Amino acid sequence: MDWGGLLVGQLTFYWDVHLWPRLQGLTDEEYLWEPVAGCWSLRRGADGRWALDGAQPEPEPAPVTTIAWRMMHVAIGCFTVRSATFFPEPGDVAAGMWDRRHIPADLPGTAAGGLAFLEQSYRRWRDNIAALDRSGLVRPLGRKGGPYARDPMAALIVHINREVMHHGGEICLLRDLYRAQRGSATPPAAIASETLG
Q: Which of 159, 165, 69 is nearest to 109 (CA)?
């Protein structure tokens, strides 16, 4: 059994068939749409930089989040931070996977910028995990994994796959709700094909 191929294939199939097609045509208004009061979103600060709303500890229940917030959560929390931690490139901080220095100082405040950042982050993570051989999959995360130091890389890949599918489903639902709020009677072709497929 090619476990690495199976894990990477699961993420690739979800991205190519379900999530990425559903994100096409995203507008700036939709990206930052707040369906209820008190949403967490992506906001421009006094310094002109865009950053995510948040609080530690997270409130219970957690606030509803915008498409922009969810997209950046996936791009950063699932892909960027994990890539920089376990597959560092020049310029990446040598630090554990909860180090805030992995988070970009300015996030994309437009739908087009958000999509480009999400896709770039996804490609980097996917290409790195696709290059792992069996020893890379079973190797423990080590000190950069914090309390998960003894877990193998394969366990992190499974976790990231689940997170992307979970939050991707939320993003798609928010797109459906936005469309319904705006009174669109005909779903986009990508939504119709996913419903039938």
A: 69
